[in-house]
Amino acid sequence: MTEIPTYTMAQRLGAEALGTFWLVFGGCGTAIFAATAIPVDAQMAVGVGWLGVAFAFGLTVLTGAYAFGHVSGGHFNPAVSVGLAMAKRFDWKDLPGYVVAQVAGATVAGAVLLVIAQGIGGGFDAVESGFATNGYDDRSPMGYNLMSVALIEVVLTAVFLYVILGATAKRAAVGFAGLSIGLSLTLIHLISIPVSNTSVNPARSLGVAWFAGSDALMQVWIFILAPVLGAAIAGFTHSFLLGPDLETDR
Q1: Nearest CA among 90, 243, 233, 92 for reference residue 166
Q2: pLDDT tens for each residue of 1-33
Q3: Is the distance from CB of 134 to CB of 208 less than 8 angstroms?
Q4: How many Å apart are CA 218 and CA 46, to the nearest integer?
Q5: Class of domain 9-239
């Protein structure tokens, strides 16, 4: 009989930090370096645009879930940890450590991205570029106001938690949780990049906001509050809406 390994809290927190680092480095890195179309010649420009950024975030979660999820559960997001705790899938006493590890991993990723970005000829201004931060009003990609941004962040984070709780439920198809969760995050970005530049993750927002100036930091509060609220709503209501089977992990 194969022995199921047990992981120390230090190992679990390390996995969360690494997974969140990968999410921010891959997703925000794509937005910073590859989203904008760069002219190659008179007839061609290269750049992945919003579609590429959406897939980048989904791929980081998909690959991170399979690489680190067996160690820590693969949250990589304080809102996810809160939602899972509300759903009784995660111990509240472990929440502070997970949040610190997630924010630390995201912050290191933001710092590494800044160092890389500053290596371009002519220099790089993180404040002027936006540095893949989230925002509302004049800092929203399409100028959406605070109400629109708050609502979409609450709704999409709640939906994200419903997907996570369903994909990891006892009766869900074994081995496909990472795929469905990663694809759902891709869809979430396809919907909301124009509105808020998509957070649904306080660590992702903080990880780059530290380096993007006071305006980014003054708006980051809503990208902490709204995702946590959406996740808490989903965690609290999922068993009433979708059945008690979701309350039990494999």
Answers
A1: 243
A2: 455 678 999 999 999 999 999 999 999 999 999
A3: no
A4: 33
A5: mainly alpha
